[in-house]
Specification:
Blueprint (H helix, E strand, L loop, with lengths): L1 E4 L5 H14 L11 H10 L3 E7 L2 E10 L8 E8 L8 H15 L4 E8 L3 H9 L3 E12 L3 E11 L6
Helix pairs in contact: 1-2
Protein name: GNAT family N-acetyltransferase
GO molecular function: acyltransferase activity, transferring groups other than amino-acyl groups
Keywords: Transferase
Length: about 160
């Protein structure tokens, strides 16, 4: 698997994954009616960097890195990850997470924070914990899950000092 910076033409493969995740309403706080232009702005324009994972020319997943806040908070980054359905369970998200931690440290960020990890998404919670993230807060009923109703969200955080190269 190769993880590399996303090119504009890669969004043709990234968009259906992002669109379907938004529509599902189970893991991301995104408008279920997210259109392609807004998806590109979110995934391709707003981040400081966006990467894709590919194997044999097929896009398996993607992630972005951006400052979590402005000014005095811009030393903490935020990242978002998506994995194509056919690539799930193959270690793609773990590889993307490891890559993003190293890349964020290389970019000079001191920490990474996830603002809304949907608590019912136990696969993600376990993965982020394996990568050193701590649950630093829980927001009761902060997510309107499409099938479960109101569910909690975790704020997860880790420093990047051990990632500096």
């Amino acid at each position: 698997m190769l993880i590399r910076p996303m090119r504009p033409d890669d969004f043709d493969a990234v968009w259906p994954v992002l669109r379907d995740i938004a529509r599902a309403g189970e893991t991301y706080a995104l408008d279920p009616g997210l259109d392609r232009a807004a998806g590109w702005a979110l995934w391709g324009e707003a981040p400081r960097a966006t990467f894709v994972a590919e194997r044999d020319g097929a896009i398996l997943g993607s992630y972005y890195i951006k400052p979590n806040a402005a000014g005095p908070g811009d030393h903490v980054c935020n990242a978002g990850y998506i994995v194509a359905p056919a690539a799930r369970g193959q270690g793609v998200a773990a590889a993307l997470c490891a890559h993003s931690l190293a890349e964020a440290a290389r970019m000079g960020f001191a920490a990474m924070q996830f603002n809304m990890v949907v608590a019912s998404n136990q696969v993600a919670v376990r993965l982020w914990r394996r990568h050193g993230f701590l649950i630093v807060g829980t927001l009761p009923g902060a997510y309107r899950h499409a099938t479960l109703g109101l569910v909690d969200c975790h704020v997860m955080y880790r420093t990047l000092h051990d990632q500096a190269g």
